[in-house]
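Worked example (supplementary).
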Amino acid sequence: MSNEAAVASSPTEPRCGDLLGFAPQALLVPETASLFAALATSQRLRIVNLPGKLPGGSAPAGEIASAIERAPSLPTAHLKTAAQAGLVESERLERNVRYRLRPEPFRHLAHDLKAAASALHAQPIAFSERRMDRA
Amino acid sequence: MAPYHRKMRADDIVTRLSALAHDARLDICRALARAGAEGLAAADLAGRAKITPPSLTHHAKILMHAGILGQERQGRSVVYRLRPEAVGDVAEALATLAAEA
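After joint prediction of all chains, the assembly is encoded as:
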């Protein structure tokens, strides 16, 4: 989290942290919209979150299907979409393909968004005050 | 099944994530993040996000519905700003997902 320290102590860029505009991180990459899109269904969010709650942090689609009481084809389809967006990874163990969430894109997005929110909180200029200043 | 995030309901976070799942809307958010708490007037914002004013109106509506954008009328123009609470909520939900992996 060294980037956060840099954000807080940088007087030259008080308006924008390490965030949506200047950061080399998640929110700047062209695929950012697809990352959000891959997360933007409640079912898929739940499915990608499940392996982390199971022993070993990974699970085959069948196990995820049992946990949510649905046919295996449902988690398989969602996990495929999530994997294409880089949000989950899979490994083959004997006859099973096990899935796990990749925390990195989540961390990067969270970091950038947090920096954006902090930068905005750090400058509480109300609309009305701004207008009065200029009047 | 425990909720994956204790503060926000899944529906809320999904609405916010879908609102962010679009290049033009991300460009709007980036421009507003750079502009800071003062926000930007519609015409200025459309220019910086490189979209037409009607397109801005459309996408801003979606972002406002998700709580990510706030809007205020100032004289004859509309000023938009990013709502840090909503942005922080999304950050927290994503950080929770990463921590549970």
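Two points are worth noting when inspecting this output. The helical segments of chain A are 2-8, 32-39, 42-49, 61-68, 73-84, 103-121, 127-134. Residues 18-134 of chain A form a domain with the Arc Repressor Mutant, subunit A fold (CATH 1.10.10.10).
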